[in-house]
Amino acid sequence: MKANLEVTLKLAATVAEFDLPDAAEPAPIYKV
Amino acid sequence: MADLSWASSSDIAKAVASGSASAVSVTEAALARIATLNPALNAFTAVTAERARAQAKKVDASDKSKLPLAGVPFAVKNLFDVKGIATVAGSKINRAHPPAQNDSPLIARLEAAGAVLVGALNMGEYAYDFTGENVHDGPSRNPHDITRMSGGSSGGSGSAVGGGMVPLALGSDTNGSIRVPSSLCGIFGLKPTYGRLSRAHSFPFVASLDHLGPFARSTRDLALSYDVMQGFDADDAATVDRGIEPSLPSLEQGISGLRIAVAGGYFRKGASPEALSALDTVAKALGAGRDIEIPEAARARAAAYVITCTEGAALHLERLRKQANDFDPAVRDRLLAGAMVPSTLVVKAQIFRRWYRDRVVALFEDCDAILAPSTPVTAPKLGQQTFTLDGVELPVRPNMGIYTQPISFIGLPVAAVPVPLKPLPIGVQIIAAPWREDIALRIAYALERMGVCVAPQPKI
Fold first, then answer.
1. What separation in angstroms does the CA of B167 have from each of B12, B13, B57, B118, B189?
2. Chain A residue nearest residue B337, CA to CA
3. pLDDT tens, B136-151?
4. H/E element holding B136?
5. Dihedral over Cα of B226, B227, B229, B230: its sign
6. Are A11 and B302 a contacting pair at CB < 8 A?
7. Which chain B residues are closer than 8 Å to A19 by Cβ?
8. Which residue of A has its CA nearest to B300?
9. What are the pLDDT digits (tens) for B222-251?
10. B351 contacts on A by Cβ (under 8 Å)
């Protein structure tokens, strides 16, 4: 389990370090 | 009656419609093949013989000219609800569940088209698997070499179709679970656009990534089954009401005018010579000379990995708390890890998904389809724990899907096609824009007509 967590956190860090604009994922919007 | 043991669904349906074969005789032959071959392949976990015989009789008594799948035997991964059977989803835990009260709507739609359900198929536990191995049921085996993996998690589906037990099967694909077994078992698979086919009455894994779709030994059979399974279903919140957009009418239009590119960069790094040879063979046959870079594919794969283990952990948290020892340890430990990932990292992965989706979809302004390997290697040996990709030794189980994960992450449709290399086949993905399954299938059909992509018949 520890080894799996290490792999997962390492992969998560590669995503977290990617610079993205704030609020890129809005809440669901009723479009109709 | 002609030998229909390796026949396509469309040929079986034609034979039944013309009266040269009956649905009952085709069903009995399929049940006999299962009895003969399943001890070696271990693809089936349940055989629904009584139900199949009743459905076949019903088909024979119907106007078969109106049934596009008249008498076609099919089977489903055991995460589909089959009325009267517990939906085990490859687990020990779900065996205590009561029998399903209803069939999956996809089963109902195939049966309404004349198909005959003959059983439920082996799979990796809770679909968290790329190997086809299962500690409770034993591994489903590769029909081209039974000492090798079928691929997962829809391993039984790949084994049953590739091994000639049935011409058609259904599976699920969260990160590659249709495309990986298609590749390893040398058959065709379709992962439709996210939201196209109803997932109601199937056991979930990662709701924001789960897709259902067919396996077959020909593109026409994929199109036939896919077309009859389409349609909005209010019971699955993800299905989109686009009406039915049939793929069969354009199947034979050819590839003239289609702009086909080849994924470079990430999708060539780590691929074995066999995977690159298959990709290059397909690209050459299609005249696809242009390389295209799918931006941040490695990060997309990482984000898919994070969302998978965390959403999966949320789904299974109570079972992990109460019945941890009843899980396959390899699945349990990945889910437990997912339960400990900070939520901020999960949100980051979701934000990244939106960014990535917009950029990849924009690529389709300049091309109609993108080719990529389905798997980095041909079928590994059963029990094999690691392989070497790009000089790095990596565990097999999570890494068979390195080329499929960045695509399903944003729900794009993919036709997976087999290249019959010797001694083992390997697959190529034909990736299309959202809702353009028709284009992916057109290209797959053209490759089949050229003889480049063919499901090889195994010697079992």
1. 9, 11, 19, 11, 12
2. A5
3. 999 999 999 999 999 9
4. none
5. positive
6. yes
7. none
8. A15
9. 999 999 999 999 999 999 999 999 999 999
10. 20, 24-25
Tell me the average pLDDT of chain B: 97
Secondary structure of chain A: what % helix, strand, coil (to 5)?
45, 0, 55
pTM here? 0.97
List residues in chain A touching B: CB distance below 8 A: 1, 3-5, 7-9, 11-16, 18, 20, 24-25
**Residue B193 and residue B245 in contact, taking contact as beta carbons nearer than 8 Å:** no
Task: Give B437's contacts (C-beta < 8 A, 6+ positions apart).
Answer: B190, B192, B193, B196, B226, B245, B247, B413, B415
Phi and psi dihedrals of B336, rounded to 5?
-60, -40
Residue B228, helix vs strand vs coil: helix
CA distance B120 to B117: 9
A4, A18, A25 ranked by CB distance to B337: nearest: A4
Note whether B298 contacts A24, CB cutoff 8 Å. Answer: no
HEC string of A1-13?
CHHHHHHHHHHHH
Which ipTM score applies to this complex?
Answer: 0.90
CA dihedral B1, B5, B11, B15 (to 10 degrees): 20
Give CA separation, B374 vs A19, B150, B179, B328, B382, in Å.
29, 14, 6, 26, 19
B402, HSE (Cβ side, Cα atoms, 13 Å): 23
What is the number of CB-based contacts under 8 A between chain A and chain B? 66
Are B283 and B367 within 8 A, CB to CB? no
pLDDT tens, residue by residue, B387-434: 999 899 999 998 999 999 999 999 999 999 999 999 999 999 999 999
Q: Check pLDDT > 90 for residue B322.
A: yes
Cis amide prior to B395 (ω within 30 degrees): no
Cβ neighbours of A29 (radius 10 Å): 5
CA–CA dist B204, B208 (Å, integer): 10
CB A1 within 8 A of CB A8: no
Task: Give A25's contacts in chain B (Cβ within 8 Å).
Answer: 347, 350-351, 353-354
B351, B355, B357: best to mutate for the A interface, most A CBs within 10 A:
B351
Q: Residues of B104-129 as b/e, b for ≥16 C-beta within 10 angstroms?
A: bbbbbbbbebbbbbbbbbbbbbbbbb
* Bridge pairing between strands B116-121 and B44-47: antiparallel
Assess whether pLDDT exceeds 80 at residue B8: yes
3-state helix, strand, coil in chain B (%, to 5): 40, 15, 40
